[in-house]
Amino acid sequence: MRHRLLEACVDCLVEHGWSGTSTTLVSQRAGVSRGAQLHHFPTKNDLVVAAVEHLTETRGRELVAAAAALPHGERRTRAVLQMLADHFTSAVFSAALELWVAARTDETLLAAVAPLEARVGRETHRLTVELLGCDESRPGERELVQATLDLVRGLGLADTITDDARRRARILDRWALTLDTVLKERP
Amino acid sequence: MRHRLLEACVDCLVEHGWSGTSTTLVSQRAGVSRGAQLHHFPTKNDLVVAAVEHLTETRGRELVAAAAALPHGERRTRAVLQMLADHFTSAVFSAALELWVAARTDETLLAAVAPLEARVGRETHRLTVELLGCDESRPGERELVQATLDLVRGLGLADTITDDARRRARILDRWALTLDTVLKERP
């Protein structure tokens, strides 16, 4: 039942946004009584934060699984970037974006979202370092990984209001070339 | 009066977000009667889109003015990046972000926001090409400019829920170095 509520909440965030998501709508969608819902999640914030946390964990596992299937050799960097860009243009990203933006002007929500976001950020960073074969003890490599993640975050945001797939592909082609050049030119 | 309403609306979006911004709150803040407000802007969408358009134009003029004061020579690229990052972490960006995210799940709003966003995107792109001295006829330079703008957009989004200034500075230092290297290595 908890699982059904969480999935329904994510679907509502993706389809209707933060302001269109109510606990009533979520319980209807999940086919769960109001009483049962209130038992699991007393407030909208509790429900939404748990839902995004749940989805983030699911997607995190999916990312790790997708990472295992990435090619090695020449095409690897571009494939890593594609995997990250797919992640940042997915429904998970839309749901998380709704939560981030709502948290910007809601202190209670921010207190719940900020630690979640920090943890997700650290995990995604660590995975990217590993996938790209970066060495963070070398000057500038940590910042290149961070820039890569900020880039795909920016691409994700751009994609929310226009379909941006072709432009994104060209940018990622160029970014892969930049990364490969920098990482190959190591002393 | 129109001007006061637009400024009050932007302030509301920045402070209270999309869901906390009502036409009533905006007219109170502007000290304008409901009747006068409805005369200028019949719906919340009309008001909000006009407000963000107004602010974007103001900030666009400020960007052009700031651009004229940028240093030349070695420190220019980093200064251009700082100017862009300042833009994407400003109150304007927060107000625009509220609008983008709301438009994602509101077709009427999207129809108004998408052309505005496309125009702003083109203008910011053109300005960045000029400031960095890029030549878009050379392979990959257009994509580097786009990546730069997506990077600062991503940095802006990251900054909405945590103060991110120190991390951002290091990333921009590194990106300036990469851009200078690529642009200098032209055949």
Automatic annotation (TrEMBL), chains A, B:
- Alphabetized UniProt keyword annotations: DNA-binding
Binding region for DNA: 22-41
Residue intervals of the HTH tetR-type domain: 1-59
SUPFAM superfamilies tied to this protein: Homeodomain-like
Query: A GO molecular-function term, please?
Result: DNA-binding transcription factor activity
| InterPro entries, sorted | Homeodomain-like_sf (IPR009057), HTH-type_TetR-like_transc_reg (IPR050109), HTH_TetR (IPR001647)
Which PANTHER family does the record cross-reference, listed alphabetically? HTH-TYPE TRANSCRIPTIONAL REGULATOR PKSA (PTHR30055:SF226), HTH-TYPE TRANSCRIPTIONAL REGULATOR RUTR (PTHR30055)
What's the protein name? Answer: TetR family transcriptional regulator
**Organism, scientific name:** Nocardioides donggukensis
